[in-house]
Amino acid sequence: MRHTMRRTTLVAILAGAAAMGAPAAAYAHVGAAPQPHDLWRAWSWTPALLVALAAWLYARGARALWARAGHGRGVAPWRTRCYAAGLVAIALALASPIDAAAESLFAVHMVQHLLLVVVAAPLVVLGEPALVTLWALPRDARIVLARRWRGLRALAHVARQPLVAWTLHVATLWAWHARGPYETAVRHPLVHVVEHASFFATALLFWHVLAGRRARRHLGPGIAALYLFAAALQSTALGALLTVATRPWYGVHLATTGPWGLTPLEDQQLAGLIMWIPAGLAYTVAFLASLATALRADAAPRLQTKLRIS
User: Fold this and answer.
1) How many CB atoms lie under 10 A from the CB of residue 164?
2) Among 179, 288, 184, which Cα is nearest to 241's?
3) How far apart are CA 42 and CA 35, in angstroms?
């Protein structure tokens, strides 16, 4: 009986942990494209519940970790706030009317993807969810997962290499904005599942290289700058191409933008500007934060040396 209860608890918690990694990514658009008057009732409650479950698991893990190590140790309080903000961004992208409006407008679809890729993903990474959520599991489950993780270390090591993470992130960006994959994703819910999941998963990997617990082992300040600059360049290039295009790229939106007061080309140009400017700004902010962290790390030993000399 006890073994069965533990097994049931483990299955439920692991399902929630998976939802934390890509909450609501498994939910896409179904039915006719919505119009402005549809938005007031266009809330997706299942993604919201999954996000709530992810928050509960994380809070449970943080409490258990702090009860063992002391409040604020193991994971800093500011990291828990980052994780909470990341979940809010995911909820906005996938549970709010943004998700419904993205069916009709490419520009809103772009907002949705940027919320997942340059807002939610780095915030979730800063929250260290793998470590914290592990403490939400029963002790026996933690031991089993730790043993199984050893067999995946080689694959994880390869995936965390900056060039691999960057390539997967950028390839996903370009691949899903090609006409065929994009239109297929809008028309077919299951493909849209894969689109959201791949955007978020590769973004988690990309930001983990920069902001993960062991980020300094992978990147020095110079490499981090190049890593971010190269990613920003891809986003800027795609945004510019969308903005200066003289005809719409995607036929799937030709009949959906009119009720919103936009032509298909205007919708696409707005989407391009969103990809070009806000996304580029997000990468720039990340670069400045990375540079500031590196400068503080370099200044600390020098200050200690000066104090010893004086």
Assistant:
1) 14
2) 179
3) 10
Q: Output the CA angle 74-79-83, nearest 5 degrees.
A: 120
Rounded distance between C-alpha atoms, residue 258 and residue 253, angstroms:
9
| pTM score, whole prediction | 0.79
Tell me the CA distances in angstroms from 310 to 296, 297, 302, one per residue in order.
21, 21, 12
pLDDT given for residue 102 in this prediction: 87
268: closest CA among 285, 292, 291, 252?
252
pLDDT exceeds 80 at position 30: no
Report how far residue 257's alpha carbon sits from residue 132's, in angstroms, rounded to the nearest whole number: 43
More confident residue, 126 or 215: 126
Q: By percentage, how much of the chain surpasses pLDDT 70?
A: 75
pLDDT at 240 exceeding the cut of 80 = yes
